[in-house]
Amino acid sequence: MTSILEVKNLSKSFRGRRDWPWSPKSVALEPTSFTLAAGETLAIMGETGSGKSTLAKLVAGVDNPTSGDIYLNGQKLYDANTKQRCQNIRMIFQDSEKSLNSQRTIGQQLEEPLIFNTRQTAQERQNTVKQTLRKVGLLAEHYEFYPHMLSTGQKQRVAIARAISLEPQIIVADEALVALDPSVRAQIINLMLDLQQDMGISYIFVTHSPQIVKHIADKILILYRGKMITFEKTEHLLNKPQQPYVEQLLHEHL
Ligand SMILES: Nc1ncnc2c1ncn2[C@@H]1O[C@H](COP(=O)(O)OP(=O)(O)OP(=O)(O)O)[C@@H](O)[C@H]1O
Questions:
Q1: What transmembrane ranges does the database entry give (predicted)?
Q2: Domain range spanning residue 21?
Q3: Pair type for strands 202-206 and 25-37
Q4: Residue 12: which of 241, 166, 248, 226 has the closest Cα?
Q5: What CATH number corresponds to the domain at position 145?
Q6: Which residue of 53, 93, 207 sits with most ligand 1 atoms within 8 Å of its CB, as the best mutation to test the pocket?
């Protein structure tokens, strides 16, 4: 399979609290490289503080790397070109409650990426939003709703709607399923798998859950203290003896 995403030696260091040029830097992510094909799902795993969110944010362009490059369909992504990044790589965060503005309707919030990234008219944007709401299992009427009128699962569907409205090639989901109860989580996973089939989306899931990984991931990338120690196809990784750290990550919730 040809890769749509190629990440080469991506790294991130943070300065100390005051961000003075002379304060020491700590390495959150050592140079990390991986590839992702169209329609493929990558799971990023690792203990707390191992650099998972840092890597996810760098790929989605939410933060800039200290070094390294990202190529999408062979074309280098530049930090300054946020529009190119926004259209092709979208991120869903852990807390859909916090990522929605309580003062604005769902429709207004879903129109935002369309206003900044397309030339659609107001009427076209409204139509796109209503179509997208239907794609994620909500109703066109939810356009007029405010976030407090929706359940947690429905809010997560809105977060997914916002991510897919520009028809991206890649969605990065940082612990996006963790706040959901098991039955809602199963519905959201199935929705995301259906969207993957229909739209050919590639996913990068940051997750602590071995069950989710085994269910959806084609490849697993494991971080330990900011260093990538494994990047392998799920079936290969699960069918061979593992070092204790990996073994623990892959089985501890079972
Ligand atoms: N903005 C920041 N400033 C300074 N240090 C940071 C910043 N963001 C992350 N770090 C540090 O980088 C390291 C990796 O953090 P990161 O959030 O990527 O880990 P994680 O694997 O996602 O953890 P968790 O599972 O708890 O979310 C940690 O030591 C963290 O303290």
A1: none
A2: 3-251
A3: unpaired
A4: 226
A5: 3.40.50.300
A6: 53
